[in-house]
Amino acid sequence: MTQYKYSNANRQELLKWNGWGYKDSKFYIDDDNIFFTGSRYPIGNDIELPNFRDYILERFEISILDKPKLPTTFPEPILNETFYNAIKDMKMDYSVDGEDRFIRCHGQTLQDIYYVRTNKFKRIPDLILWPKCHDDVVKIVKLADENNVMLIPFGGGTSVSGSITCPQDEERSIVVIDTSQMNRLLWLDKENLLACFESGIVGQDLERILQDECLTMGHEPDSIEFSTLGGWIATRASGMKKNRA
């Protein structure tokens, strides 16, 4: 079973920074025709899409030749020194790297993607943390409360509600809690059909674990490849087989 353990380096190696999906599954242009490449989906394997180019030009009036580039300069981090030093003392994984912060400053709304592609964000996270367990999160929240630091939980980054987009006028230090390392099954009670997973597990990984036990979630949001259990709960997520809380 594949589990995606995003670190401060390999999230952007696996996923697109400027939109939805995997980096190895994409549209490309050859001889003025559009193709889709990648082996993850039936549409892949360099299938030509002869009518797609004209559709894009007519409906969106955008050039298919324009390729957004990842920024090379980023806003300087605003760090709460007391909080920051305490995190370092705790030996927790963290990053103040501009690229790590930039790709976790937004969700997937149209405005988010426009801002990402045009580099219009005035505020991005100042510090990224990777807790590994519940107790790590408790320590972070307590420390943030004591030092007036803003926390934003970040799972798969698929939000279309604006809930993970940084407030653009926020003056406090903004710290993202990336839950991707909290992705384990803690216990399973097959008799009562109950299970306890950590909040950062990606939906498709959760489903694979259950299928290995001849079980299923019965919950299938469109974002199941990338979104996490914690995000579903926080947003009362729906899907093709919607659960009712």
UniProtKB/TrEMBL annotation:
| Keywords recorded for this protein, A-Z | FAD, Flavoprotein, Lipid biosynthesis, Lipid metabolism, Peroxisome, Transferase
User: What enzyme category does the UniProt record give?
Assistant: transferase
Q: Write out the pathway annotation from the protein's UniProt entry.
A: Glycerolipid metabolism; ether lipid biosynthesis
Q: Which domain of life is it from?
A: Eukaryota
Write down the EC number.
Answer: 2.5.1.26
An example GO CC term for this entry is: peroxisome
Q: Where found?
A: Peroxisome
Q: Which reactions does this protein catalyse?
A: a long chain fatty alcohol + a 1-acylglycerone 3-phosphate = a 1-O-alkylglycerone 3-phosphate + a long-chain fatty acid + H(+)
Q: Give GO terms for biological process.
A: lipid biosynthetic process
**In terms of one coarse class, where is the protein primarily found?**
other
What this chain does, per the record? Catalyzes the exchange of an acyl for a long-chain alkyl group and the formation of the ether bond in the biosynthesis of ether phospholipids.
Its family remark reads: Belongs to the FAD-binding oxidoreductase/transferase type 4 family.
Its recorded name reads Alkylglycerone-phosphate synthase
